[in-house]
Write a structure and sequence with these properties.
Length: 161
């Protein structure tokens, strides 16, 4: 994880007074409830970005630490909590790593089911974004249609899991 960058307003004012044309602009962090929160420290020259320094770690949940004193099976529920919109992807990746480490052979049908459920989960995740995007554009009804379609997909996933 990168070290947080502290910006001093006095330094910025001194740079402007000294005639420097570049300035630092913070992009983010966004609202903590949004997922995948990221802060980017931008160095600007007018309206052009000269440098972009990502500052990650705003939604760190200590999953690594929680996994230190659990068995692989006890940690399994945590994988779906890393990203609540794409829970299947993280669970499948974790289980695949455990299977590879244990040198287990998975039936081909199980691999197909995993791919199908991951793709359905991806579509449902995109429907959340699409509905929120349309809501930002002023359309409330399209949000409801997107979430209605998402519910149908989640019902299918519920049957599988």
């Amino acid at each position: 994880m990168s070290t947080p960058v502290v910006l001093n307003p006095a330094e910025a004012a001194a740079a402007v007074a000294a005639g420097q044309e570049t300035f630092v602009l913070n992009l983010g962090p966004q609202h903590p409830a949004t997922h995948g929160v990221l802060r980017v420290k931008l160095t600007m020259d007018g309206e052009s970005i000269v440098r972009a320094e990502p500052v990650c770690g705003y939604i760190h949940r200590m999953h690594e630490k929680m996994g230190e004193n659990r068995t692989w099976a006890q940690f399994l529920p945590n994988t779906s909590r890393i990203d609540y919109l794409s829970a299947m992807h993280y669970t499948h990746a974790y289980v695949a790593a455990v299977e590879r480490a244990a040198q287990l052979e998975v039936p081909r049908r199980a691999e197909f089911v995993r791919v199908i459920t991951s793709e359905l989960n991806r579509i449902s995740s995109h429907l959340v974004w699409f509905g929120a995007f349309l809501l930002d554009l002023g359309g409330f009804t399209p949000l409801l249609y997107a979430f209605d379609d998402r519910e149908k997909i989640l019902d299918l996933l519920e049957r599988v899991t």
